[in-house]
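Try it yourself: sequence plus D-malate, in.
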Amino acid sequence: MASINDNYLKLKAGYLFPEIARRVNAFAEANPDAKIIRLGIGDVTEPLPEACRTAMIKAVEEMGDRNTFKGYGPEQGYAWLREKIAAQDFQARGAEIDASEIFISDGSKCDTGNILEIFGHDNTIAVTDPVYPVYVDTNVMAGNTGKANDKGEFEGLVYLPISADNNFTAEIPSQKVDLIYLCFPNNPTGATATKEYLKKWVDYAKANNSIIFFDAAYEAYITDASIPHSIYEIPGAREVAIEFRSFSKNAGFTGTRCALTVVPKTLTAKAADGSDVELWKLWNRRQSTKFNGVSYIVQRGAEAVYSPEGQAQIKELVSFYLENAKIIREKLTAAGLSVYGGVNAPYVWVKTPNGLSSWEFFDKLLQTVNVVGTPGSGFGAAGEGYFRISAFNSRENVEEAMKRITEKFKV
Ligand code: MLT
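Structure, out:
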């Protein structure tokens, strides 16, 4: 009989968001008249920018003409898209990233998981706690951890606690770790990192020959001019960091699918024979073997983000969600709750009141005001006692949810 990858059995029962959906669906079935407002999963609700739609419609027409039809595209993504990304997202901010170092993909979730394939299984891996659960679960699946303890912490991972005490930015570890996941603006806490803080990580990584996985999926939400959008704005980061970016949260592509990963050609790690190997070569080899690229139509849609109209439209989209976040922060504060984040990020991180656990607060909010959020404990043991509210929804729903919480929810 065939055998399975036993590492999957170490995982907690379900991925966080499907588990929330399961509970919400059960509640909805039992209470068919309840008008549930979902501020749980960070999924966008507003339509695609017009510039992206127009570009994609044109691309569909091109696919209908034998003279402009496209078959397989380059596995790394079309050069016209990568060049615009390199120029506008990186070089314009003083980050020396070349178009050849950019890989277009169908999502940052996939890439942050898949990147582990080019690394060995003997690395010491650090994650913050709380953390985006994909980083942990993909390491479990890859066999990079032992079993979970009662708190859900996996043996073999180094957990770096983040809380209000350290502004939700982890202390630089005293021990040596090989791979470090950093996410700024942070999911789930909405925290941001200063240049000085990121420099400490870059210096640490250089001193310890570590690699930083920098998830910048929410960089478009940075409004404060002093906050870096890319780790490559920090001198030396080209030698130590891989960066993940996405069109999901800036241009509403969660259902359209397009993202990018930057693997600088200056980045190396050790082979078993002691030689230094270029990570770009390995990732390129992986992608060209296992991936056929993102569709031409979608890449044309992503390219339109870099046009003047596209830039104005995504700015408007991001401002819309940031205004939602502001409303959430203000109303929850007025309701007597302690809130964090939501200023340069679409997530508001809330301390649960009266010592309620994260799931108790989730149930109470669902049952009393029919509002769904995400229990902080789903992001890690140190997320217990916190709750995440996403600003991704219509204005009407956000206002209605906050009205219900301020008027009917007794803290
Ligand atoms: C979240 O709610 O954390 C998001 O769904 C993350 C993601 O985009 O995968």
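One thing you can check immediately is this: The chain is about 35% helix and 15% strand.
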